[in-house]
Amino acid sequence: MADPTLYADRYEIVREIARGGMANVYLARDIKLDREVALKVLPAELSRDPAFVERFRLEAQAAASLNDPTIVAVYDWGQEQATSFIVMEYVEGRTLRDVINRGRVASDQAAQIGADIAKALAAAHRAGVVHRDIKPGNVLIT
Known about the structure:
Structural class: alpha+beta
Shape: globular
Strand order of the largest sheet: 1-2-3-4-6-5
């Protein structure tokens, strides 16, 4: 069965943003609130594993408890046909991996990026959330 293009009768896929080992991320439109969101969709093969789905749900729940300008907001979680999904704030920008791949990063910019990452991790840790996949591909630069 193909992935739906509309999730929860509300989130309409516009285009793919990224593919990862655990999920695919799409730019979507929240048709009820008329805003862009990021839709993180667990592939169907992983959605058949109850333990993986529970881990995905707990990720959404933990992330939704965070409220900090350095952390992407989580708006919703749900299931659609054979998949699970998380709806997040859409942030326009590039990943740190893309920035690094473009060449040298100025020392003041690198220091600011590092400080922002530390601030985000501190906010998460204060809330009892441990991010287990910090890497340049998961850091957005606006």
